[in-house]
Design brief:
SH3 type barrels, three-stranded antiparallel sheet, 61% helix, rod-shaped, Alpha-Beta Plaits, alpha+beta
């Protein structure tokens, strides 16, 4: 009996063992399947990553090829531009040296011509600017920059500015002409033909000339007016002639009046001895015989001699009993009529 019980117990334990083994096998099988699925998923993910990397590499290679092709197309242009740039730099340095040489020649010429310093500076700046402008146009053409439109724009702008500043440019051009041609200098006594103003030149600028009158007034005259009208320069020479007129009565002796005026002029201290004194009848007017006296003096003595001679003329004629007439009416009354002369 006990043997049977032990046998049954052994069978029962074996069955349990088999069951446990079966469960373990099932679990291991499930784990293996899960692992296989995970490995399969991982393989699929790796394949997709590899495919994406391959696509990116292909795209990068294509972009690199396109860049290389583009650069290959631009390389000749870049090389040509570099060569032109080097030529332009060479032209700039050579042109700069040539401009310096030309400016030295121009400056020496202006110094020999004794041109005013202000005009020398202006012409130096103007010529230098024009030369550099021409050099800039040459360099731009060498590089490949189109300058036609740029020049047209500058021409239009210059025309507009010129029309707007026509009066100022006229004065400026007149100032340059005055400083170059030198019709008068600082210190000369001039008479402006257009305005009638006269005085000693105090300053000559590019736009205006300043004169000082004998009564110490300052007058500013536009150079355009001076350059476009006649200007009398009373200081152009070292000597000047004084012309004075005086009237005497028709009843006086003309020869006596001429001798009185001649002796008076010959004794004046400012008279130039080498020049002859001239006295003559200038006009037979309605109420007088007009006498004219001409005396040569040094330019620096002109005004002093002028006023002194005019005063002495009146004094000497009075001493000689020669009457200086003035406008008058002679009324003659006759029987039955009145006449006015």
């Amino acid at each position: 009996m006990s043997f049977l019980i032990r046998l049954l117990s052994a069978e029962t334990g074996a069955a349990d063992t088999v069951t446990a083994v079966s469960e373990t096998v099932a679990e291991d099988t499930s784990a293996i399947e899960t692992t296989l699925q995970e490995e399969t998923t991982a393989d699929l993910s790796l394949e997709s990553v590899n495919a994406e990397i391959s696509d990116n590499l292909n795209e990068a290679v294509e972009n690199a090829n396109q860049l290389v092709q583009t650069l290959q197309g631009y390389i000749p242009k870049i090389i040509a531009f570099g060569i032109n740039l080097l030529i332009a730099l060479a032209l700039f340095f050579i042109g700069k040296l040539v401009i310096r040489l030309l400016m030295k020649i121009v400056n020496k010429f202006m110094q020999r011509s004794k041109i005013e310093l202000s005009v020398q500076k202006f012409l130096d700046s103007l010529i230098q600017a024009l030369l550099y402008f021409v050099l800039l146009i040459i360099i731009c053409n060498q590089i490949g920059i189109q300058t036609t439109s740029f020049i047209a724009l500058l021409s239009t702008a210059g025309l507009t500015i010129g029309l707007a500043l026509q009066g100022s440019f006229s004065n400026f051009a007149g100032g340059v002409l005055i400083l170059l041609l030198k019709p008068f200098r600082v210190g000369d006594y001039i008479i402006d033909g257009s305005s009638g103003k006269e005085g000693t030149v105090n300053k000559i600028d590019l736009f205006y000339t300043v004169i000082v009158t004998v009564d110490n007034k300052m007058i500013t005259i536009p150079n355009g007016s001076l350059s476009n009208s006649h200007v009398t320069n009373a200081s152009a020479f070292d000597t000047r002639r004084i012309d004075l007129r005086v009237g005497i009565n028709y009843d006086n002796n003309v020869e006596q009046a001429k001798n009185v005026l001649r002796k008076m002029a010959e004794t004046d201290p400012a008279r130039l001895k080498e020049k002859k004194v001239e006295v003559y009848v200038a006009d037979l007017a309605a109420s007088e015989v007009t006498m004219e006296l001409r005396v040569w003096v040094a330019t620096k003595d002109y005004w002093d001699a002028y006023f002194r001679l005019k005063e002495n003329m009146k004094r000497e004629l009075d001493k000689a009993g020669i009457e200086i007439p003035y406008n008058q009416l002679d009324v003659h009354i006759k029987e039955g009529q009145v006449s006015v002369h």
